[in-house]
Amino acid sequence: MNTAAHDATAIAQRYIAVWNETDAARRAALIEAGWTANARYVDPMAQASGHEQISALVGVVHQRYPGFRFNLLGKADAHGDHLRFSWTLGPSGAEDLIQGTDFVRLDAGKLSSVTGFLDKVPVGA
Asked: Which of 102, 80, 79, 106 lies closest to 89, judged by CA?
């Protein structure tokens, strides 16, 4: 049962929009609007704290995987101030190569912490 007061899908879509934004200034504005000032991000390959580090991490992903796009996979789900959703990453217009699941904690509707898990990663990625 979903007892969330938050719109999990809308929050997850805004999160994905950050990861797809290649322009640093527009990405910074998206992060400012949707993340707390002291937000933290961690996954098996990286970690970042605060808006600048999170934006820089996204920039590194764009450098490593140019032309790749993130997409939501399935339905985002929320319970209170916690969200979970899965995503895919792959070349624009081609089959997705990487999949993951993120768990989010919100503070006043903004992302305060994200813990990411990689569910499918091809060798060499």
From this structure: 102
Tokens of 61: 């992903």
Both tokens of residue 68?
């790749």
Residue type, 46: A
Q: Which residues pair with 84 in a beta bridge?
A: 77, 103
Asked if 87 contacts 16 with a C-beta cutoff of 8 angstroms, the reply is: yes
Residue-wise pLDDT tens digits, 20-70: 999 999 999 999 999 999 999 999 999 999 999 999 999 999 999 999 999
Residue type, 119: D
Q: 40: which residues sit within 8 A by CB, 6+ positions away? A: 47, 48, 49, 112, 113, 114
